[in-house]
Fold these 3 entries.
Entry 1:
Amino acid sequence: MKTPKGTIAKRVILGLFALVILVGGYNVAKQVRNNIRENAIEKADKQRIIDAQKADAKRRHEFAETIAKPAMQVWKKEHVVLPSIVIAQAIQESNWGQSKLYQKAYNIFGVKGTYKGQSIIYYTDEYVSKDTKVAKGVKVVMEGDKKKISVPATFRKYPSVYAAVENHSTVVALNFIKKKNVTSYEEQATMLQKNGYATDPNYAKSLIALIKQYDLAKYDK
């Protein structure tokens, strides 16, 4: 018995329709899977960022605590540099303890010279004019129109963080904060800049901003 042509045509159309639904469903399912995978990757990336931020915050807190203990001990003994100022300077000078000078010599503040006969040679970067002659062995890097040279210098090597903080207090008392018992960190920061501790015109503002941001004044109490 022959199947009517209209029936065949309907079956073909239904078959094509079913195929379209099948293919469309596959594409939808594939897109859903891709979206799930992308969301999972994005979530994992966000979690890695969060974990890295937590680890960095923990490292910074631990560094601040490492400097705070001897800073408070030296303040109680000498009453020269407030702990908040010491910690803020340590953060700024050593980049939260990441500097090679700190890691190799406990030289938190970049003090040159020797300490009880102990020192370390470390290269410091300086910018000079393009026609400046440099000695043999000096590293030279061109940064556009600027000429940066790395000059070896002798820095103090300390046996401990406490020794570095204590020596820092002595240096500051002799040259920058010549009054004892100054209990305002704003005043001490201003005195450091005014008396030439750093050439940065925003040095005092930077120290004060760090103290406020990380609540370092709590160590003064």
Entry 2:
Amino acid sequence: MQKTIERLAGDAEGTIYEFPVFRFQGKDKKAPSAYLQAALHAGELPGVVAIDALMPMLSKAEAEGRIRGPITIVPWANPIGRAQYHFGEHQGRFSLGTRTNFNRSFPLLAAPDVRLLPDTTLGGADQRLKTRLVQLSLGTDIVLDLHCDDEGLAYLYIHTSLWPHMADCAAAMGVDAVVLWSEDADGTFEGASIMPYQNVPANVARFDRRVVTTVEYRGMLDVDAALAASDAEGLYRLLVTRGVIQNPSVAKLGTFAGAVVPLENIDMMPAPRAGAILYDVKPGDPVKKGDRLATIVHAPGEIDGRTEVFAPQSGFILTRRSRRIIRAGEDLLKLAGDKRSDDARSGTLED
């Protein structure tokens, strides 16, 4: 294993950001390559501890000569967000300097060619970081961006061009659901990793062997040793299944049995009033059209001081908010519906 330190100049003199990159060299030039990163939203830690649990497994495979393709690991992908605190509260989702989501505004290239990356010499530190992460990952066969939601099931975002080719990956990771998407106008890291292959020859795109996904490891508070070990086993199984690591003792799982939902079927359920949320449902719960999902207490103790929110269609609860205070118009939850949402959104579901 090789460890290097990436250094990024900050936006003021004397400010430098650093993050480590670990590389395992493969012994077979024809084997698939893999890139894994975690904590692009710097406060989302389930992927960080999953990588921590995965590293000894990779080191053992390396010592035994079982790593076939090169593996690049970035356990803390966002040193800028990691350092951001405001009045004691960590702020890892948005850049405080630009007010931009750290998982937006990545360069969407027309082809997988690093020469097409923008010149960020005069750009901000967050843009330099994003360009460097694309540079580190571009051309890799397997790209996994590890995130988590507020409270939720384990699920994957997968571009429609990679489904059902990636069904074996979803099964290997043991996730509960897959959300399929087709457009990216916001420049997510996942979009920057798959969009360059949409208009290139099939022998370059290689959708049959390509893996690109945003992994949502349940919720912000799901950070413990048992879950980390289980998630690491899923990552390791994926690498074995796709031929990056050789390990005949790891059994390939069968067909993915979880839910597969088009992004257009997700109802986000904006809150009609501001107040305190009383949820009637939790992630994984099935719901029918008309079921009460939550009650918002907007005027405590008063007649008509509560507003109920009902399911617009049947389906199941994918995620919900971890905080119980909400403003009018903010999203209460993700309902994975049986049909297209009346409020269908393309691209990203939320800011």
Entry 3:
Amino acid sequence: MKIFNNRYLKPFKNIYILVLLVFVIWMLFFDAHSLLFHNELNKEIEELEYQKEHYKNEIVKDNKAIKELSTEEGTERAARENYYMKKANEDIFIIEYEDSIAKQDKDD
């Protein structure tokens, strides 16, 4: 048994150290509340908090849009800009800039 006489393995002869080592390894890697599981949960919490902030910002923007559309002028402006609606005696001219138009192939 020359292996156990090695000075590096001498502390592992003690049963208490062995039990403690097994317990620590079990708690870190194999238990239901392991360190790896907690790391995954922390990452998921961070992602959900980011989504929460994103949705809060979206709610603020939507509330602003609702407030804007609740007035008649806001509704009229949205209808004109987004749906190209007009009054009976008006003409609408849509101006598109050259860089906003999709380029067509000249092979046709």
